[in-house]
Structures are given as structure tokens and as C-alpha cells.
Design the sequence.
């Protein structure tokens, strides 16, 4: 089974990045917020998630993923 691991690496001057990705039948709207760190904090559909792996969805819907580098 494939999972979506989040481990971004952006130039320090990039403060936010927005992207859309289709993953396993779901549309993920991703927002990356660079606060200058290297640790990843995730929120999926507004709820904090432990680690850097986006949970799998089976509803074939649209989901929001906020990735903060802290």
C-alpha cells in the first residue's frame, strides 16, 4: 500500500506554497507554510496529525492538508 509522506525542502525565502494533488482517487489541496524549521507539523481537514504521513481516504473527496515547517 502506498502512503503520502510529506517531507518538503524549500528555499528559506519561500514562505507559502499552494499545490493540488490527486492521490488514490482523492483531491488534496496542500498548503505549505515555511516558518524556517525542518520539522513537519500536519493538519488534515483542520485536525492535527502526528508524524508526516497523510492518512488514506476512501471517500474520493477533497481534503485540505496544511504542512508547516517549524
Sequence:
Amino acid at each position: 500500500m502506498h502512503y503520502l509522506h510529506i517531507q518538503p525542502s524549500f528555499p528559506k525565502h519561500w514562505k507559502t506554497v499552494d499545490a493540488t494533488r490527486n492521490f488514490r482517487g482523492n483531491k488534496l489541496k496542500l498548503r505549505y507554510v515555511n516558518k524556517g524549521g525542518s520539522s513537519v507539523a500536519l493538519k488534515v481537514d483542520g485536525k492535527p496529525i502526528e508524524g508526516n504521513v497523510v492518512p488514506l481516504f476512501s471517500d474520493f473527496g477533497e481534503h485540505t492538508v496544511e504542512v508547516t515547517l517549524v
Summary: The CA atoms of residues 15 and 25 lie 29 Å apart. Strands lie at 4-5, 16-23, 26-34, 40-44, 47-49, 53-54, 62-69. DSSP finds no helices and seven strands in the chain.
